C-alpha cells in the first residue's frame, strides 16, 4: 500500500500531462509492416530470389524479412485563414526473421514539420516544410521499385498554384554512409540536390503530367578521400486516372553523374555516367468483375566507367476475388540484365498466393497470405550472384538453377 501511495502522485501527473498534450496535439498513428515465415525446398529459411544488376525484385512470396514503419504525427498549431503546422515522424525497422526476440537498431526515416496555407494568391494553398522526409516518392508496388525518390533531410515549398500547374521546390542534403564498414570520412562526401517539379499539368481527360529536374551539387567537405561528382536527373511522369477502376503511370528519366541512379543521389557514380529509363505500371479493377491486378515494365540503359548495362523487367500480378474477403493472387515476374561483353543474366519468378483480406480491392489490407514461389535462372545469373545468396552456387540450392519456397505472410498499412 505504501508503494502504491508513493507512486500515485507521479501517475496522476503523467495522466494530466498526457491529457494536456492530447488536447494540444491530437496524435495520428499510422504505419506499415510485413512479416511471415517459410522454408525453401532444400530446407532452412525461405529463399528470396533477386537478379544481380536488377534494380528490384518481384515481391509476392519473395520477402524474407520483417519490415515495419510506425508513423506518429499531428496538428501542432492552427491559426487564422487556414494556416496550420503539422508535425510528422516515422520510425522504421527491419529484422532478419530468425526468432521471436531480435535486437536491431531502428531508423528515424522521417521527422519534419509542414506549414500549410502559408500565404495568399498563388501561395494560398502552398506548403513549406523542413526536416527529414519521404519527398514525393514514386514507386511500382509489386516490385517495390522506387524509380523517383529524392528523400532525406531538406526543406522546400510546394503546391504553389501557377494556374495551369503546381510548382514545388526542395533542397535536400544527403551524405554518404557505409553501413557495412563505416569510416570517419564517410559523411564528408556530401551532395545538395535542388529539386524543381511542375505537376498537375492537364494533358487529356483524367490525365496529367509531372515534369521534374534535379540538380545535384557536389559539396564534399575537406578530407573526403573519395569524391562524389555533381549530376542531374530529368523526369517526365504521365498519370492517367479513372482507367477501368485503376490508373496508368509512365515515366521517362535521364540522369548524369550522381543523378545516374534510381531517383536519388548515386554516391558511387562517376562524372561521365549516364542512365536512361522508362518505367510503366498499370493497375486495373474493372467494375462488375471479380478481377483486379497490376502490371509493370522497366527498361534501363546505364552507361558507366566500368561498362554499360541494360536491365529489362516485366511482371504482372492478377488477383481473382472469388468470395468476400477471399482471393487468390498470382505473380509472374521476369528480369534480364545484359552487361557489355558478358552473358545475359535471366531470372523468372512465379508465385501463387491465396489471401484473406480486409476487402476485395487490389490494395485491400491487411492481407494474410499463404504462398508458393518457384524461380528459375540461368548460368550467367548464377555466376553473377553474391556469395551465399539464393541464386549462387554457395546458396541453399547449390549448383541447381531453380528452386522454390513455401510459407505465410501478413502485409498491412493503416
TrEMBL record:
Signal peptide: 1-23
Record's keyword annotation contains Membrane: yes
Lineage: superkingdom: Bacteria
Ranges in coiled-coil conformation: none
Membrane topology: Multi-pass membrane protein
Pfam family, one: LamB
Record key words, sorted: Cell outer membrane, Ion transport, Membrane, Porin, Signal, Transmembrane, Transmembrane beta strand, Transport
Keyword Transport attached: yes
Cellular compartments annotated: Cell outer membrane
InterPro entries: G_neg_Bact_CarbUptk_Porin (IPR050286), Porin_LamB (IPR003192), Porin_LamB_sf (IPR036998)
Protein family per UniProt: Belongs to the porin LamB (TC 1.B.3) family.
Name of the protein this chain belongs to: Maltoporin
Lineage: Bacteria, Pseudomonadati, Pseudomonadota, Betaproteobacteria, Burkholderiales
Amino acid at each position: 500500500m505504501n508503494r502504491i501511495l508513493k507512486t500515485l502522485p507521479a501517475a496522476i501527473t503523467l495522466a494530466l500531462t498526457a491529457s494536456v498534450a492530447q488536447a494540444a496535439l491530437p496524435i495520428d498513428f499510422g504505419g506499415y509492416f510485413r512479416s511471415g515465415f517459410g522454408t525453401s525446398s532444400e530446407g532452412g529459411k525461405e529463399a528470396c530470389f533477386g537478379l544481380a544488376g536488377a534494380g528490384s525484385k518481384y515481391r509476392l512470396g519473395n520477402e524474407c524479412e520483417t519490415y515495419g514503419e510506425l508513423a506518429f504525427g499531428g496538428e501542432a498549431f492552427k491559426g487564422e485563414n487556414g494556416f496550420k503546422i503539422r508535425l510528422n515522424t516515422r520510425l522504421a525497422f527491419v529484422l532478419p526473421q530468425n526468432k521471436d526476440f531480435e535486437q536491431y537498431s531502428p531508423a528515424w526515416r522521417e521527422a519534419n514539420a509542414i506549414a500549410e496555407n502559408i500565404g495568399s494568391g498563388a501561395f494560398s494553398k502552398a506548403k513549406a516544410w523542413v526536416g527529414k522526409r519521404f519527398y514525393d516518392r514514386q514507386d511500382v508496388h509489386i516490385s517495390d521499385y522506387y524509380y523517383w525518390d529524392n528523400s532525406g533531410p531538406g526543406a522546400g515549398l510546394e503546391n504553389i498554384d501557377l494556374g495551369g500547374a503546381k510548382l514545388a521546390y526542395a533542397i535536400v542534403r544527403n551524405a554518404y554512409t557505409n553501413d557495412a564498414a563505416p569510416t570517419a570520412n564517410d559523411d564528408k562526401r556530401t551532395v545538395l540536390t535542388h529539386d524543381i517539379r511542375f505537376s498537375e499539368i492537364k494533358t487529356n481527360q483524367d490525365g496529367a503530367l509531372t515534369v521534374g529536374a534535379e540538380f545535384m551539387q557536389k559539396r564534399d567537405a575537406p578530407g573526403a578521400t573519395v569524391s562524389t561528382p555533381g549530376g542531374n536527373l530529368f523526369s517526365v511522369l504521365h498519370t492517367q486516372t479513372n482507367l477501368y477502376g485503376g490508373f496508368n503511370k509512365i515515366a521517362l528519366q535521364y540522369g548524369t553523374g550522381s543523378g545516374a541512379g534510381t531517383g536519388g543521389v548515386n554516391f558511387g557514380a562517376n562524372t561521365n555516367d549516364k542512365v536512361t529509363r522508362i518505367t510503366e505500371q498499370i493497375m486495373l479493377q474493372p467494375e462488375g468483375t471479380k478481377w483486379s491486378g497490376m502490371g509493370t515494365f522497366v527498361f534501363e540503359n546505364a552507361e558507366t566507367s566500368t561498362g554499360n548495362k541494360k536491365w529489362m523487367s516485366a511482371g504482372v500480378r492478377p488477383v481473382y476475388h472469388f468470395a468476400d474477403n477471399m482471393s487468390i493472387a498470382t505473380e509472374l515476374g521476369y528480369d534480364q540484365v545484359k552487361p557489355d561483353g558478358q552473358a545475359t543474366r535471366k531470372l523468372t519468378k512465379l508465385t501463387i498466393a491465396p489471401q484473406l483480406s480486409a476487402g476485395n480491392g487490389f490494395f485491400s489490407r491487411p492481407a494474410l497470405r499463404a504462398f508458393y514461389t518457384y524461380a528459375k535462372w540461368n548460368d550467367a545469373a548464377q555466376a553473377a550472384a553474391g556469395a551465399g545468396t539464393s541464386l549462387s552456387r554457395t546458396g541453399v540450392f547449390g549448383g541447381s538453377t531453380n528452386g522454390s519456397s513455401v510459407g505465410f505472410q501478413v502485409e498491412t498499412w493503416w
